[in-house]
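Progress report, Aim 2. The chain analyzed during this reporting quarter is listed below.
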Amino acid sequence: MKEQVITSGKFKYLEVGSGKPIVILHGLMGSLSNFQGVTDYFPKEGYKVIIPMLPIYDLPLLKTNVKQFAQYVNSFIDHLELTDAILLGNSLGGHIGLLVSLLFPEKIKGLIITGSSGLYENSMGESYPKREDRGYMTRKCQEVFYDPKVATDEIIDEVFETVNDRKKLIKILAIAKSAIRHNMAKDLPKIQVPTAIIWGENDIVTPPDVGHDFNRLLPNSNLYWIENCGHAPMMEHPDLFNDLMVKWLASTFN
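Predicted structure tokens for the chain:
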């Protein structure tokens, strides 16, 4: 990701292109570069892609939870004076996007979730056993994808370094527990924002049943599947992911 990080007030973010805003919400262990395919493509289609750096490690421990991140995103939208934003979130980012759409629907034009938490997800449990074993962490990173080659050395090194930073690990575990506790099954039927659900058929973190459940519970949703794909479709199949986004945006808002 070559773009310059912008600092404005308490916010840091990337911004590419001009036009209709797409605000991308990254996952717990995800980096901004996970959405490179979206960032490269959509500015050419008349969209401004904006990726705020979520304060994963910056909030006090008691405020390190999904609700506070949703409030942060709402403040970010207000700060940039965005109207009719399209939210795109992967994993934890999808969960945050759902909550923003529930609490502040007047600001959100549409929502795209992929591999989202909020209902059910498999995790490594209450801790990261063998986190000092790089081979173990390599296998855990590879399991996120259908094709283990997508877990590059750069991705593995970043995750390995993060989970072996004790302060960061405490925050990661706090957020993971918050996401599990904050089940949205009862709230999803209240969300009227048009929603695209793009899911990997081979996702073992948030299995296919989770995608079906989101589609069943969200009253204004469309579900799309990507074959030979794990938890991060926008990374494993960026071109197909973009095609599905374009199809949904055109059919929903044009």
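The chain has a mean pLDDT of 92. The domain at 6-120+183-253 is CATH 3.40.50.1820 (Rossmann fold). These observations will guide the mutagenesis work planned for the next reporting period.
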